Records
---
Amino acid sequence: QVQLVESGGGLVQAGGSLRLSCAASGRTDSRYIMGWSRQAPGKEREFVARISQSGGMTFYAASVKGRFIISRDNAKNTVNLQMNSLKPENTAVYYCEASASYAASDYWGQGTQVTVSS
């Protein structure tokens, strides 16, 4: 079992930045692919970013590529999402996820709210 706790959400103006963090506990032996997804009001949850077990490979949704950066620190069992040039359409609850494969997520946190005002 893996427990994930997100932090760092909040209210920011358009064009601003936020840094989300996710602390993992439990069976955190860096075997998991880590990632972030988000769910906006009235919409389905969508993929945002993912990072490989070693951190050597990263993947982004087209809508955030070039603005968001995912990173991980396996020694600290944390994964971060640096979000720059935020837009109102980025408003959503952001979830940290852990996956044994790229096919599906196995664990996720309770989410952190990000609100971008125009």
Note: The radius of gyration is 13 Å.
---
Amino acid sequence: QVQLVESGGGLVQPGGSLKLSCEAPAATHVYTMAWYRQSPGKQRDLVAMSSGGTTTYAESVKGRFTISMDNYKMTVDLQMNDLKPEDTAVYSCYADLVTYRREHAWGRGIQVTVSS
């Protein structure tokens, strides 16, 4: 099963910006790519999704985060601006893709910490 490769997390001050990137090695086609996040003691929630040219955002990140998927490169980026302490979480990349079969793939997760 393919595993997605994430990069770009880290520590940032409130009001700052970070960009997360995710790639799907060995994929021949992607239908949907998305970012989820999970804070300690909470469930994993959808942050943003791109599918068929349509993007969806959680209410809490609308106007601050932008998801962009490249169907040719099989990559998805999440530009996060005006970060808040409540954005602190482990962010995981998800993809509905095709390798030699259609499958659902996840990355290992990447830490984003917003703190002064």
Note: The CA atoms of residues 46 and 106 lie 13 Å apart.
---
Amino acid sequence: VQLQASGGGLVQAGGSLRLSCAASVNIVSINVMAWYRQAPGYQRELVARIGSSRTRNYAESVKGRFTISKDNAKNIMYLQMNSLKPEDTAVYYCNALIQDLTGSKDYWGQGTQVTVSS
């Protein structure tokens, strides 16, 4: 499974960005897809995740501002980020968790940089 993240960039505080994560497989087969982020000097943290039934979870820090979604027909997951803050600056990674009879495995994209200026 290969994941390709894109859509990062430089934006002013209060602005918006939409990240995309294109998968090399049918994402219907993926149990959970998620976005994580890692800022310099900090551990990687979960931002949002979406299950196969489209159940969504968000970090408290992004609730009401970020929306995770996916397009099964295009095999793409999105993260719409609104009202961006400087503290949202980080490298954003997409993640896929696949569970089968042999166990579970995580797959990661290469990351896309998001920089929010004050």
Note: The mean pLDDT is 96.
